[in-house]
Design goal:
single chain, mainly alpha
């Protein structure tokens, strides 16, 4: 379905921007207020404001929304989710372990089981899991941090470790480091308490037919949601990168902003279908292939087996590089559309699957 490919295209475009910082440095180990300064710090703050903490929430919401459509055969959906998991896991393994998107198709597999179950089950499950994420994994640690040493110190040893590995051409060492990164991001907690409840919420939006609502209404709701998310994320900037600010900004502000972006896309598809089709559909059709190519190009630019710019490029230039690669991918997807070559297709526009 064309609308679903537009959703998928948007999802992977957001992901491309979000994963870009991981090819610059291991941001999880760095306090940007120690590492960046002047204009580069402002560039990072702007980048962080819009793309930090939104990748997994947006992809989870869209995944839950799409897989709940009854016209898609359950077994076919399961096969597609398995394919997506394998591809995304290989991308994390080969290119960068911090990407972690492979947890989203796992959430999709779980939610798919509840597609025909009473809606109240999805509501209760999502509220409990997301509530635990906000309280146990965000608010309580933020309060503890605020009452103690609330400063994020850069781990110079870890930073040098990543610089040493990614700036060399030893592929085996890179894979070993990527495995370490996968465990560092606490992927199981992110799956259970972030991706899974938001996939349930995406499914719920489909079941209550939110698309019809946004044909005429919803503009104010979207504006309020996005602005609320941005305001909360601004707390991290105003707190100069404190532990509590980062927790609240990424975990709560990121989720709220992701919800606003998701609803904005639904509105765009309903009211400006030609524009959304032009921007997102082709990339959506070839999304897995394009995302793989994106990461391959980024790795070639930044890692030791390529141009070796890891840790060397400014954030502003990083955004320009991402934009150029996306333009190349946009053109490549349009070329692929004219051929019969259909690699790693999630949803074909010629038929449902």
């Amino acid at each position: 379905m064309k609308k679903d490919n537009q959703l998928i295209g948007f999802m992977f475009l957001i992901s491309m921007f979000s994963v870009g910082i991981y090819y610059l440095l291991p941001i999880i180990y760095v306090n940007p207020y120690e590492y960046f300064y002047g204009g580069e710090l402002k560039s990072y703050q702007l980048y962080h404001l819009f793309f930090s903490g939104v990748m997994i929430p947006v992809t989870s919401l869209i995944t839950g929304f799409i897989i709940t459509r009854q016209e898609y055969d359950r077994l076919d959906v399961l096969k597609k989710l398995l394919m997506i998991f394998i591809v995304l896991f290989i991308i994390s393994l080969l290119f960068n372990g911090f990407i972690g998107l492979f947890i989203v198709p796992i959430s999709g597999m779980v939610v798919l089981f509840f597609r025909d179950k009473p809606l109240i089950i999805s509501i209760i499950t999502s509220l409990i899991l997301l509530g635990l994420y906000f309280i146990v994994w965000t608010i309580l640690p933020a309060l503890v941090a605020a009452n103690s040493n609330n400063i994020i110190y850069s781990s110079i040893q870890q930073l040098n470790n990543y610089l040493g590995v990614y700036r060399e051409s030893d592929i085996i060492s890179m894979i070993e480091l990527n495995v370490q990164s996968i465990f560092t991001i606490n992927f199981f907690d992110k799956f259970l308490f972030l991706s899974l409840p938001l996939t349930f919420i995406g499914s719920m939006f489909n079941r209550v037919n939110i698309e019809d609502y946004f044909k005429q209404k919803g503009t104010i709701l979207i504006i309020v949601t996005i602005i609320s998310g941005l305001i909360i994320k601004m707390l991290e900037i105003l707190s100069l990168g404190s532990k509590s600010g980062r927790l609240i900004g990424d975990n709560i502000g990121g989720v709220i902003m992701s919800l606003g972006l998701f609803l904005l896309l639904i509105l765009l598809i309903q009211r400006l279908p030609k524009l959304s089709e032009f921007l997102f559909e082709n990339i959506g059709v070839f999304s897995l292939t394009m995302f793989t190519i994106f990461n391959l190009i980024m790795a070639t630019i930044f890692y030791g087996f390529g141009l070796n710019y890891y840790g060397e490029v400014k954030v502003g230039y990083l955004v320009i590089i991402i934009l150029i690669i996306i333009l190349v991918i946009f053109g490549l997807s349009m070329l692929l559309k004219k051929t019969k070559f259909r690699p790693l297709i999630i949803i074909s526009n010629e038929n449902h699957y």
